[in-house]
Design brief:
By secondary structure, the protein is α/β, with parallel strands linked by helices. It is built from 13 helices and 17 strands.
């Protein structure tokens, strides 16, 4: 497969004729909608030439909430190794709190597709946010840990999960070692039952990086403790921040450079975003709030506004500006060019695989490109 960037005057039919392929294949690959208008600068994935035979093996995980549409889940599962159900919480006594929406259909669908369902464990408080008091209570209390581990084992077995992903954020600095110990204890406890234990890591670039997202995560210790780790290499551009790429390649690379110096690359999964943001301009710190936008929605917005899509060669990310109802906007999102640049990091560093946050929107070009690039384990 190859990537074509739309130029002025291009149509689906003219591109198809130039490459000797069917217009219907372009429409299908890129989820184009009638009347199949294109934006200048839009990246299209074309099926042309001899199909490639991927040789680099990669694990592919996708996070999803239990309210995912059944059709989106079924369309995505053929491209996954594991499906992480987001999420299970816990109380201060170690009781497990299941998702508010029943996740049984996700687990059954995954197993039928040959995909391993994974229980994602998060320390969400009553307000629905990460709660470091819950973390402190758990990692420093042997009775609470024992109770939680027993409850996890029961749930994993009864519901058909095949592993657990520990996604704890805002860990206090003083809980750095106790948290790593908890990950190790969880792995040791579940190992006799062949359950895989992974841990999500905030995107650090040094041992002494300051901030509540980073200080409690010790890459070296957690890398040793878990079977695998996910680098959360996204959210540079985020809801309350200034307009920029969600996962700029130059920033992602800095995190990977540091991670492989502390953790075996064969244990590392690269975090990949399946979303973008739409900011109103001018950006006002403390007041502006971006809206989450999918890749297909972003392109359609550019088409409707009649503006070209640009591409930042440093961030390796597409973006554009437009105006609606007298308000200026700036959009950064992901396309096949930005995904191809991230995919290239796996063989370059020898990484284990990748994890998508999240798969609630189906973006076919990404999955076709992934299947064309990797041998999915």
């Amino acid at each position: 497969m190859e990537i074509y960037v739309v130029k002025e005057g291009d149509t689906v039919d003219s591109i198809a004729g130039r490459y000797g392929i069917s217009a219907s294949s372009i429409i299908f690959n890129n989820q184009l909608t009638y009347p199949y208008a294109l934006a200048i600068g839009q990246a299209l994935l074309l099926s042309s030439g001899t199909p490639s035979i991927p040789s680099y093996p990669a694990y592919v995980n996708g996070y999803a909430y239990p309210f995912i549409a059944q059709s989106v889940l079924e369309d995505t599962l053929p491209f996954l190794t594991t499906l992480s159900v987001f999420s299970y919480g816990f109380t201060t006594d170690g009781s497990l709190v299941p998702p508010a929406v029943d996740d049984s259909f996700m687990i059954h669908s995954a197993l039928e597709a040959g995909v391993s369902p994974i229980l994602t464990l998060t320390p969400f408080g009553p307000d629905g946010n990460f709660n470091n008091y819950l973390i402190t209570t758990l990692v420093n209390n042997e009775e609470v840990k024992a109770n939680l581990l027993d409850n996890l084992l029961t749930t994993l077995s009864e519901k058909g999960f095949q592993g657990i992903d520990i996604d704890f954020e805002f860990i206090l600095p003083e809980d750095r070692i106790p948290f790593a110990d908890f990950v190790a204890e969880t792995r040791n406890f579940l190992a006799p039952y062949s359950y895989h234990v992974s841990a999500a890591l905030a995107p650090k670039t040094s041992d002494d990086q300051q901030g509540l997202l980073y200080a409690g995560k010790d890459y070296g210790l957690i890398g040793e403790a878990a079977d695998s780790v996910l680098l959360m290499t996204y959210e540079w551009g985020y809801t309350y921040g200034p307009p920029m790429a969600v996962a700029p390649l130059n920033k992602v690379r800095e995190v990977v450079d540091y991670a492989v110096s502390r953790i075996s690359p064969s244990k590392i999964d690269l975090g990949i975003p399946n979303y973008g943001y739409d900011w109103t301009l001018p950006y006002i710190k403390g007041a502006s709030k971006a809206t989450v936008i999918g890749s297909l929605e972003a392109v359609r917005t550019a088409i409707e506004a009649g503006v070209p899509i640009q591409f930042d060669e440093t961030a390796m990310s597409p973006f554009f500006q437009y105006e609606k109802d007298g308000v200026s906007h700036e959009v950064w999102f992901e396309d096949v060019r930005s995904y191809r640049a991230k995919f290239a990091l796996l063989p370059e560093y020898g990484l284990r695989g990748m994890g998508y946050w999240q798969i609630m929107r189906f973006f076919r070009p990404n999955w076709l490109l992934l299947k064309d690039t990797f041998l999915i384990r």
